[in-house]
Write a structure and sequence with these properties.
By secondary structure, this protein is α/β, with parallel strands linked by helices. The protein folds into three domains: 1-149 and 296-309, no CATH class; 152-278, 60s Ribosomal Protein L30, Chain: A (2-Layer Sandwich), CATH 3.30.1330; 315-490, fumarase, CATH 3.20.130.10. Helix content is 33%, strand content 24%. It has helices spanning 7-23, 27-39, 43-62, 91-103, 152-155, 169-176, 198-208, 215-221, 226-239, 347-359, 398-408, 421-429, 442-446, 486-505, and strands at 3-6, 72-80, 83-86, 115-116, 123-124, 132-138, 143-150, 159-163, 188-195, 254-262, 269-276, 282-287, 315-318, 335-344, 371-373, 412-415, 433-436, 449-456, 465-479. The strands form five sheets. The protein has a five-stranded mixed barrel. A four-stranded mixed beta sheet has the order 6-2-7-12. Helix 6 (169-176) packs parallel to helix 9. The chain is globular and about 75 Å long. The model has no long low-confidence stretch (mean pLDDT 95).
Length: 506
């Protein structure tokens, strides 16, 4: 007997799932971060995880996005061969209508990040469509759907290699993870796909990230196949790298490692690695013809209550009166609370500014002795000044940094993760500073913003130049005016500490 499934039930279920995952972390993820937080010995990493946990509870209570980057939607659909979809749209159009409604929901507007013509005009589609959709035809009388919303920062760190059959997967993973920096917002998960062809390995890695965090259960029962052996070995060895939360150095870089494999050609060993960030977002539902499948809200009592303490040694600064001399003694790893007005700008704004500088055209705002925040905020709802406004990956602005520092009078930048050698050299030469805000704490950060207005490039939407007025916005000095980077020193120190600890145990 054929199961009839209405297209509107699929649309409603996709919309509900995407709204749900925008503000509810999976419980297994929260439990794993909390456990890592409790055992963390690095104060900087512990502080970052505290902000992630506080942000998660705030988002669950306020039903607002965990991260300002509400992701590109990926959908895995298993279509039962005894089902029939009743409606007039293609299956892709059905899924995309659910995405469209979810991202334009007036009660919780989600940021549209999808651009058409990716190597040309790069025009925002306005509703975060189209999704990336994968189908399988399977026996059965239901339609089984997984939806995920993947942030651009973690997706950008995806890796692939076609290894020789005798090459070590472990060696390859350990060689590439340190090159990923912190732009994928650890602590998170690594999805690893092995075998098949190039595209199959990447698909396996992405699918692996849908599985729950259960590495502790695997440790207790032991590995039963090669994929599970790899999970255990890589979990230990990746954390031994000392990269830590947000790349600041610490005991926990990954919360779990997932491995899926597939038969491969005798001459090949395709290996893919895709990280999932601190904004882990995925949901699963099954349609059986009885109506839409709605997500069940979690019990908020399951969220740990973590406090973030502002110590006496924390430096408060007034950005409205700051000068280059004031930032000269800021130290890497130091916590700073920002007060006053900052400007914003990310990829599109930086490119336009550099083009205008080259043409001798005036910029829309004076950057002298100002700080710029790399952010693309979510639109506000209700009485919000701004929606979730966490940092974007700073390395994408590296190629613009020297020009902007030397030609505009800018003295400070705020973003996510590390800076590359080009940017660090420019920061050192211009005696500027780079500050790091916690990726994965976007709603928490937005609560420090007490006023917001667009002051330039309004046509760029979320990539316009805003002026934010902030009160006690927490950041960490990541690169000081002498060019010292905490993302270099922190992991190095903690890798050594972990190695020394293991020697003592032995």
């Amino acid at each position: 007997m054929t199961t009839i499934i209405r297209q509107d039930d699929i649309i409603d279920s996709v919309e509900d799932a995407l709204q749900f995952i925008s503000y509810f972390h999976p419980k297994d993820f929260i439990d794993a971060v909390h456990e890592a937080y409790l055992r963390e010995e690095s104060s900087a990493a512990k502080d970052a995880m505290a902000q992630i946990l506080i942000n998660s509870r705030m988002c669950a209570e306020g039903r607002r996005p965990i991260c300002q980057d509400t992701g590109i939607v990926t959908v895995f659909v298993n279509v039962g061969m005894n089902t029939h979809v009743e409606g007039d749209l293609s299956f892709d159009d059905i899924i995309n209508e659910g995405v469209r409604r979810a991202y334009k929901n007036p009660d919780n507007v989600l940021r549209a990040s999808i651009l058409s013509d990716p190597d040309g005009a790069r025009k925002n589609t306005g509703d975060n469509t189209p999704a990336v959709i994968h189908y399988k035809m399977v026996p059965g009388d239901t339609i089984d759907i997984h939806v995920a919303a993947k942030g651009g920062g973690s997706e950008a760190k995806s890796k692939f290699a076609m290894l020789n059959p005798s090459d070590s997967v472990v060696d390859w993973v350990l060689s590439v993870v340190p090159t990923m920096g912190a732009g994928w917002c650890p602590p998170g998960m690594l999805g690893i796909g092995i075998g098949g062809t190039a595209e199959k390995a990447m698909l396996l890695a992405k699918e692996a990230l849908l599985d729950p965090i259960d590495i502790q259960l695997l440790r207790e029962r032991g590995a039963s196949n090669r994929a599970e052996e790899l999970r255990l070995e890589l979990m230990s060895k990746v954390n031994d790298l000392g990269i830590g939360a947000q790349g600041l150095g610490g005991l926990t870089t990954v919360l779990d490692v997932k491995v899926k494999d597939y038969p491969s050609h005798a001459a090949n060993k395709a290996v893919a690695l895709i990280p999932n960030c601190a904004a882990t977002r995925h949901a699963h539902f099954v349609l059986d013809g009885s109506g839409p499948a709605m997500q069940t809200p979690p019990n908020l009592d399951d969220w740990p209550r973590v406090s973030w303490e502002i110590g006496d040694s924390v430096r408060r600064v007034n950005l409205d009166t700051i000068t280059p001399a004031d930032i000269a003694d800021w130290q890497p790893g130091e916590t700073v609370l920002l007060n006053g007005k900052i400007l914003t700008g990310r990829d599109a704004a930086h490119k336009r500014m550099v083009d205008m500088i080259a043409k001798g055209e005036p910029l829309p705002v004076d950057f002298t002795n100002r700080f710029i925040y790399y952010v693309g905020p979510v639109d506000p709802v209700g009485d919000e000044v701004v929606g979730p406004a966490g940092p974007t990956t700073a390395t994408r602005m590296d190629k613009f940094t020297r020009t902007v520092l030397e030609k505009t009078g800018l003295i400070g930048m705020i973003g996510k993760a590390e800076r590359g050698p080009l940017a660090i050299e420019a920061i050192k030469d211009n005696k500027a500073v780079y500050l790091m805000a916690v990726g994965g704490a976007a709603y928490l950060v937005s609560k420090a913003i007490i006023n917001s207005k667009v002051v330039g490039f309004a046509d760029l939407g979320m990539e316009a130049i805003y002026e934010f007025e902030v009160k006690d916005m927490p950041v960490t000095v990541a690169v000081d005016s002498k060019g010292s980077s905490v993302h270099t020193t922190g992991p190095k120190i903690w890798k050594q500490k972990i190695e020394e600890h293991k020697l003592v145990i032995q």
